[in-house]
Amino acid sequence: MSSLDLDITEPGRPEVQEVSPGVYAYVQPDGTWFINNTGFLVGPQGVISIDSCSTERRTRAYQRAIATVTPAAVRALVNTHHHGDHTFGNCLFAGAAIIGHDRTRAEAIAFGPPRDRPVWDGPEWGELSLDPPFITFTDGLTLHVGDVRAEVRYVGTPAHTTNDSLVWLPERSVLFCGDLIFNGGTPFLLMGSVEGAIEVLERVVAPLGAATIVPGHGPVCRDTGPVEVTLDYLRFVLDVARDCRAAGVPPLETARGTDLGRFAAWTDAERIVGNLHRACAELAGTPRGGPIDTAAALADMVAYNGGSPLTCRA
Length: 314
Fold this sequence. Notes:
There is one protein chain. By secondary structure, the protein is of the alpha/beta class. It has helices spanning 56-69, 84-87, 102-111, 194-208, 225-247, 251-256, 271-283, 294-304, and strands at residues 2-3, 15-20, 23-27, 38-43, 46-50, 74-78, 97-101, 135-137, 140-145, 148-154, 165-169, 174-176, 212-214. The chain has an eight-stranded mixed β-sheet with strand order 1-2-3-4-5-6-7-8. Helix 4 runs antiparallel to helix 5 (225-247).
């Protein structure tokens, strides 16, 4: 593990962690809005990156971190899903093959390049252009890093988003799971599915039995605890949503009256509102990942936050 002497000090210095020989996690504290983890694999053909970062400053710091490990070029970059904290920095990897699920490409194009949104209090994006995956898959593909297989798998159903993929290294028992897990942070299902996320964690992630899990946000996991506690939270959201619908109370009002209990200490607690919007819509018959009024849900999250934009320190 090494803490890097980069231009990023707040809310914490990024760290490179070698989680298996030639396999690295790049962990960015504190894992809140738009502060994601990435990773990279080093082999004889060069480097494969798993995701990019949200801003030009953070992505260039990530590139410098890779350079402290190897002078080799990044030959390919896999996006685990379309959200901007994992894709906005793609354009800075000139010459790399950008790989993602079919829907990852479609959703990235639909969202467009980074731009200011009043929901968040920043960040400074820098000079970034839209660069979605241009090599896409439906179910999965395999990348080879020397003698190590990196299996890129679509999870099969909407979960965190409509287009989540895992990167699984079976010989090393290392899993890069994207934003299916926020270790120490509140999960966010507004653009995916609460029920789908439960299914994926139970039927896809848990059976792998990974010894090491690199989450999309938060510290690297060396046991199954974060998977289990994420499932607990998702079931809690569904229970609250059922009560919400039975009482005929809107998600924002329900969230304000909900005791988050042991989940209250997690970062970005306002996500309970967006998660309830999604869960209530599903209970009313909206298909997993189906369209809902995300703008209204995000506005309710701001209202839950006391009317202030959501804190973003990326």
